[in-house]
């Protein structure tokens, strides 16, 4: 039996029981809803920071990406960019730095804008690129690493991360075309 300093009247016990029931119901609802997107994003961000400091770049990048998907912020994508750079994924880092610069400018963070601009300029000369030249009609469908490549991007040197990349093209009445290219250093592969 629970003792209390409340008077032992029936109405006091009823009020106490309602208070306990309300607290239980509220805590059950809080657990059912789960953490907010912002809380989850911050938790993932903090875990990413610890992984990054231990040199676990792939795991850190994954957590920062998930954090940014939940709550997009200039600082999060800036950390993701630095992480991608540590992984050697220079085109992904370059792209993330550009996104960080844009978000940071909207957030009024001039220090981050300047940092991102400096990293973009430093990475540009080292970007491997792939140029897909298509001698076909507008009915041709082209993908680069399974992502659609719009006709406006044909014959354009597209920054890619170092490594192997797959180009596929299909067109009505033609045999599908597939090619593998290996991108490394500051070269443009065609």
What do you see in this structure?
The structure is a single chain. With 190 residues, this protein is of the alpha+beta class. The chain has six helices and seven strands. The strands form two sheets. It has a four-stranded antiparallel sheet, with no helix packed on it. It has a three-stranded mixed sheet with strand order 4-1-7, with no helix packed on it. Strand 5 and strand 6 form a beta hairpin. Helix 2 runs antiparallel to helix 3 and helix 3 runs antiparallel to helix 4. It is elongated, with a radius of gyration of 27 Å.
Describe the SSE topology.
Layout: H1 10-33, H2 37-53, H3 57-70, H4 74-87, H5 90-106, H6 110-123, E1 129-131, E2 141-144, E3 147-148, E4 157-159, E5 163-170, E6 177-183, E7 188-189
Parallel strand pairs: 1-7
Antiparallel strand pairs: 1-4, 2-3, 2-5, 5-6
Helix pairs in contact: 2-3, 3-4, 4-5, 5-6
Largest sheet: 4 strands, antiparallel
SSE succession? HHHHHHEEEEEEE
The helix-and-strand class reads: alpha+beta
Classify the beta-strand content into a percent band.
15-25%
- Contiguous uncertain segments of 5+ residues: 1-31
CA-atom Rg in angstroms: 27 Å
